[in-house]
Amino acid sequence: ATPTSIMVGTGRAAEMGVLFRKGEALQTLRGAKVVALDKTGTLTKGRPELTDFVPAPGFATEEVLGLVAAVETRSEHPIAEAIVEAARKRGLKLGAVESFDAVPGFGVAATVQGRKVEVGADRYMKKLGYDVADLLPAAKRLAVEGKSPLYAAVDGRLAAVIAVADPIKPTTPEAIQALHALGLKVAMITGDNAGTAQAIARQLGIDEVVAEVLPDGKVEALKGLRQRLGSVAFVGDGINDAPALAEADVGLAIGTGTDVAIESADVVLMSGDLRGVPNAIALSQATIRNIK
Ligand code: ADP
Ligand code: MG
Predict the structure, then answer these.
(1) Per-residue pLDDT tens for 95-116?
(2) What is the CB < 6 Å shell around ligand 1?
(3) pTM recorded for the entire structure
(4) What is the ipTM of this complex?
(5) For a tag site, which of 54, 72, 162, 216 has the least CB within 10 Å?
(6) What family does the Swiss-Prot or TrEMBL record give for this protein (predicted)?
(7) Nearest Cα to 286, choosing from 29, 14, 35?
(8) Are 211 and 229 in contact, with CB atoms under 8 Å apart?
(9) 164: enclosing H helix or E strand
């Protein structure tokens, strides 16, 4: 493309809220075969809410929720905010937290008023040596509904299954349909539970799911997609997404996301509306056609 046609193209994109940080991306985008998207904060609003709390036999909801929420006051994960808010809404008093520990991609642990509390994904519980078999049916049922199940343990015993759900952005279904109409494959890359990811993918008509990816595993997931399907555009918002945004053939960051994600991207979707992705791809196709 000529510098002029790229200037015109990026100018039109800007009018649609799609900011090209690198002009070449307008050409590279045309060759994309697959659009891979992060789930939380990209496909979804990134503001989960606590939907279910299933105490294990011998445990009471309010007590366990109070302990778990106390630990989560120390975490910045969106899941943590959902749990703390739910506890506050119930008027629970949260105790003082000692020796807090966060294991990225797994969960969090701390001592709350002398009680050991651990909260996180099933892989965290397995890592800590718990047998989740008794609570697994409850967790699976919640995952099928597209909710993200977590486990809580208190004083060395599994105490509850907790589910959070993050609403899909209202513009996401239309964005995915438009990508399909352009002939692209759509993939999801997420750290979330496989059952949950599959349920959401089915709901949205997403073709490929890579789930339970550890925070440093997104680049590898992206390379796998590229090997099988071709040139990859990756869309993400989080700190964890920065390496994949840099590695992708074209990286598109959510404008309301983290600074690191934006700095690693070629393109910024100013409002976080994913319809900007098919719009930008259509524009890149039109721009290249015009100069031929
Ligand atoms: P994602 O952003 O896709 O949820 P993360 O890598 O941040 O991916 O976390 C992976 C999983 O680890 C979460 O889905 C959750 O099950 C668990 N986890 C992480 N942080 C916390 C936390 N503060 N409280 C409870 N669970 C957590
Ligand atoms: Mg995210």
Answers:
(1) 999 999 999 999 999 999 999 9
(2) 39-40, 72, 75, 77, 79-80, 105-108, 119-121, 148, 150, 190-192, 215
(3) 0.91
(4) 0.95
(5) 216
(6) Belongs to the cation transport ATPase (P-type) (TC 3.A.3) family. Type IB subfamily.
(7) 29
(8) no
(9) strand 157-165
